[in-house]
């Protein structure tokens, strides 16, 4: 099972969703993202938020058609996206994808990125991806990983928190061997695979991987 979460980011940055409509996928709306799903003909399995970004008519529709709807007080400690992610983690899916989570307000985008870091560090947490029309963002703990070539050809590696130690890139245009990457480094921006696949590994830190196209 994959849980797809739709935030309230700009609609123009949401990719076509036809390739993400698997038979076992569950879609979750976050505040205004719930309306975005319904407008695209996707029935939300669940929805979370204070719903201060939708009309009264839309909220009435949500309450009537979405069985797993949680409306919360606007004055709370967690963002709507954090509530949705907490719920999704507890469902134990194989993967979580975030849409409508980039663009628009920078504070919302950075908060969503921090949430990915937070929940990616939870034991037995599923892989979490943030996807928009130009980018796919992954966050990984230390280990060895394989990447396949895809349409988004540029691949950047950034330290998530602090520094990353022992970064090795194989099968890339700009390879690395056991390299220390300090906080704030831009050494690993816009790399590319030279074949159908490549690997990256590191021994310490948290790594943000961004796959992009122009």
Spatial separation of the terminal alpha carbons: 31 Å
Name of the CATH homologous superfamily of the largest domain = Thiamin pyrophosphokinase, catalytic domain
Helix/strand structural class: alpha/beta
Number of strands: 13
CATH hierarchy, class of the largest domain:
Alpha Beta
Uncertain runs are: none
Using only C-alpha atoms, the radius of gyration works out to 18 Å
Q: How many helices in DSSP terms?
A: 4
Taking strands numbered 1, 2, ... along the chain, how are they ordered across the largest sheet? 4-3-2-1-5-6-7-13-9
User: Which percent bin holds the helix content?
Assistant: 10-25%
Q: What is the CATH architecture descriptor of the largest domain?
A: 3-Layer(aba) Sandwich
Look at the structure and give the mean pLDDT.
93
The helix-strand sequence is: EEHEHEHEHEEEEEEEE
Q: Descriptors for this entry?
A:
214 residues, alpha/beta, Rossmann fold, 2 domains, nine-stranded mixed beta sheet, four-stranded antiparallel beta sheet, 13 strands, 21% helix, 33% strand
Give an account of the 3D structure.
This protein has 214 residues and is of the alpha/beta class. The protein has two domains: 2-133, 3-Layer(aba) Sandwich (Rossmann fold); 140-212, Thiamin pyrophosphokinase, catalytic domain (Rossmann fold, 3-Layer(aba) Sandwich), CATH 3.40.50.10240. The protein is 21% helix and 33% strand. It contains four helices and 13 strands. The protein has a nine-stranded mixed beta sheet with strand order 4-3-2-1-5-6-7-13-9, sandwiched between helices. Strands 8-12-10-11 form a four-stranded antiparallel beta sheet, with no helix packed on it. A hairpin with a 5-residue loop joins strand 10 and strand 11. The mean pLDDT is 93.
């Amino acid at each position: 099972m994959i849980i797809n979460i739709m935030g309230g980011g700009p609609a123009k940055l949401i990719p076509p969703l036809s390739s993400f409509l698997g038979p076992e996928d569950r879609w979750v709306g976050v505040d205004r993202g719930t309306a975005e799903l319904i407008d695209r003909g996707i029935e939300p399995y669940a929805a979370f938020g204070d719903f201060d970004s939708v009309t009264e008519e839309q909220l009435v529709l949500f309450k009537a058609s979405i069985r797993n709807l949680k409306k919360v007080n606007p004055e709370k400690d967690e963002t709507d996206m954090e509530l949705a992610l907490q719920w999704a983690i507890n469902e134990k899916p194989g993967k979580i994808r975030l849409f409508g989570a980039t663009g628009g307000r920078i504070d919302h985008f950075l908060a969503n990125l921090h949430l990915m870091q937070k929940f990616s560090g939870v034991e037995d947490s599923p892989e979490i991806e943030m996807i928009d029309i130009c980018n796919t963002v992954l966050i990984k703990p230390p280990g060895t990983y394989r990447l396949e070539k895809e349409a988004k050809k540029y691949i950047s590696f950034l330290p998530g928190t602090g520094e990353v130690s022992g970064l090795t890139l194989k099968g890339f245009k700009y390879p690395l061997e056991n390299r220390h990457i300090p906080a704030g480094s831009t050494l690993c921006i816009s790399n590319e695979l030279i074949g159908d696949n490549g690997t990256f590994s590191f021994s310490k830190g948290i790594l943000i991987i961004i796959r992009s196209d122009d």
